[in-house]
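Help needed: design a sequence for this.
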């Protein structure tokens, strides 16, 4: 059985990143008898200059993209509906906030070394999109580690220092230099790129095509 190496460039406050991952999971389930998948996650900050307290999501979207209140509400409902299709609750009320995720990415880098990066990503998706929490909050990151059987004290040590800061910035710069300006981005076997939260059928077709090319 062939193995597909999948590098996912993502941010835990990006709604299409969580939707894309839900769709990817369905595609991988459809292909479980044909292909194996190795997944590695890589950091991207949607809002690298965001202050620690974050910003109201409606105000942020209007300021950043210049869209109307009505269009913003319509987009948020479309996102929520896409999540519901996969049994994932995305709460997009007017009082939601969006946050910087640099510290979350530092801890996710450490979680990769512990072999729990994917589970940590999924936990932070739920914490932000379903529970409305700040994914870079130290208490949340420590609680998430404990819930995954990891060392919460080490998470605290990471956040109290600059550990993994250079590594996260290096990865961010690497993928930006490679031309990735928006997420999610899926790099397949280090050669092929799928951008955006594509439908499961798109992933299935791409994976089968790549597998056939590789014999």
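Sure. Designed sequence:
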């Amino acid at each position: 059985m062939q193995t597909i190496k999948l590098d996912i460039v993502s941010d835990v406050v990006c709604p299409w990143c969580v939707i894309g991952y839900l769709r990817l999971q369905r595609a991988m389930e459809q292909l479980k008898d044909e292909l194996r998948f190795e997944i590695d996650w890589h950091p991207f900050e949607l809002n690298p200059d965001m202050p620690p307290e974050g910003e109201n999501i409606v105000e942020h979207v209007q300021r950043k993209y210049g869209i109307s209140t009505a269009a913003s509400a319509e987009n948020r409902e479309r996102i929520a509906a896409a999540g519901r299709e996969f049994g994932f609750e995305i709460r997009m009320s007017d009082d939601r906030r969006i946050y910087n995720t640099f510290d979350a990415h530092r801890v996710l880098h450490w979680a990769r070394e512990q072999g729990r990066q994917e589970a940590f990503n999924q936990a932070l998706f739920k914490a932000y999109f379903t529970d409305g929490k700040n994914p870079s909050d130290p208490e949340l990151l420590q609680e998430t580690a404990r819930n995954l059987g990891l060392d919460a004290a080490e998470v605290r040590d990471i956040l109290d220092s600059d550990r993994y800061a250079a590594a996260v910035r290096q990865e961010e710069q690497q993928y930006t230099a490679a031309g990735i300006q928006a997420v999610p981005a899926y790099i397949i076997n280090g050669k092929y790129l799928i951008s955006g939260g594509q439908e499961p059928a798109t992933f299935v077709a791409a994976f089968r095509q790549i597998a056939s090319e590789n014999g």
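The chain has one domain: 2-213.
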